[in-house]
UniProtKB/TrEMBL annotation:
Family: Belongs to the aldo/keto reductase family.
Protein name according to UniProt: NAD(P)-linked oxidoreductase superfamily protein
Species, as recorded: Zea mays (Maize)
Active site: 79 (proton donor)
Coiled coil feature spans: none
Gene3D superfamilies for this protein: NADP-dependent oxidoreductase domain
A family per Pfam: Aldo_ket_red
Region named Disordered: 1-31
UniProt: substrate binding residues: 142
Length: 344
């Protein structure tokens, strides 16, 4: 990405301003400088987790997002969307929507069944083959959990949980970076406790921690810890969509609805703007073109101090827990309480 577009990470409520121009209908999406090398991470990216997975739907959504100015695409070996993402980026380059693959920031993740020292590099190489790319911009450990080696499955059996060799896995992640196959390495769903364990042994600290984060689960303690340690937060499930429940505490929040009505914005825009003002980037799964456009129209206005005060008082509720990725039956030989990712 061009050096003129690189921006320093914002203070908690002082996001970077847009710079440069793009030939799209939307203003340019700002970026955060992340990691020791200060690599730019777009503030809003497209999440491609879709269950059930329909490859053509993902490919079409990625192309539409790139046309609208998105430059961050988030995938994972578990999602099965890597090939669709790669196809869409290649087509976008052929059509001149992007100048080249270099213009797109691509994140992928290694699943629990691949979370073994000898499987990290082969798993990344398999992802790169699916993506039809020589490197990813960011490679993440999807969960701080190891499972019986095999193809990524969701949910997986409780009896398949194994003790995780954190040192061995992270050394292999560092090798992925050294080889240039992952320009940055990081983690997902790591608590402050897990991050402390990792930082104690890491030669290359994680650049990013991707976690559930939204006004209903604000991650205040984790955000402060990551800020202190120079770890960038990326929010997934910013609209609390990762659940089979018909109740959505973000979209149905009376506080957020009140703020949205007063500001003439959607609840989704209020949530995304709030995350952005915390200094975090966000990946949001919206496949409709109108929603894709709406999700990046959050940079030419800001929340008021009163808006922020109201949002800070919203009761907290976490949607994603370790039990959500496990089959309901069976017994784990590892204490599940030690694996959970819930912290206030």
């Amino acid at each position: 990405m061009a050096a003129t577009r690189q921006l320093r990470a914002p203070a908690m409520a002082s996001p970077p301003r847009n710079v440069g121009t793009r030939t799209t209908s939307n203003p340019e999406i700002p970026e955060f400088l992340v990691g020791p090398a200060g690599r730019p991470v777009p503030a809003v990216g497209l999440g491609t987790a879709s269950f059930p997975f329909v490859e053509e739907n993902v490919r079409t959504a990625v192309l539409a997002a790139l046309e609208l100015g998105y430059r961050h695409l988030d995938t994972a070996s578990l999602y099965r969307s890597e090939r669709a993402v790669g196809d869409a980026v290649a087509e976008a380059a052929r059509r001149g929507i992007v100048a080249s693959r270099e213009e797109v920031f691509v994140t992928t993740k290694m699943w629990c069944s691949q979370c073994h020292p000898d499987l990290v590099l082969p798993s990344l190489k398999e992802s790169l083959q699916n993506l039809q790319m020589d490197y990813v911009d960011l490679y993440l450990v999807h969960w701080p959990i190891a499972a019986k080696p095999g193809k990524p499955q969701f949910p997986f059996k409780r009896e398949d949980i194994m003790p995780m060799d954190l040192i061995g896995v992270w050394r292999a992640m560092e090798e992925c970076h050294r080889l240039g196959l992952a320009r940055m390495i990081g983690v997902s769903n790591f608590t402050t406790k897990k991050l402390q364990e990792l930082l104690a042994i890491a030669k290359i600290p994680p650049s990013v921690n991707q976690v559930e984060m939204n006004p209903i689960w604000q991650q205040k303690r984790l955000a402060e810890f990551c800020k202190d340690k120079g770890i960038h937060l990326t929010a997934y499930s910013p609209l609390a969509g990762q659940s089979t429940s018909k109740v959505n505490p973000v979209m149905q929040s009376e506080v957020l609805q009140e703020v949205a009505k007063a500001r003439g914005k959607s609840v989704a825009q209020i949530s995304l703007r709030w995350i952005y003002e915390q200094g975090a980037s966000v990946v949001v799964k919206s496949f409709g073109r109108d929603r894709l456009k709406e999700n990046v129209e959050i940079f030419d206005w800001e929340l008021t101090n009163e808006d922020r005060r109201k949002i800070s008082q919203i009761p907290q509720h976490k949607r994603v827990t370790v039990l959500g990725i496990l089959s309901p039956d069976g017994v784990s030989s590892v204490d599940l309480a030690e694996l959970d990712i819930v912290e206030m």
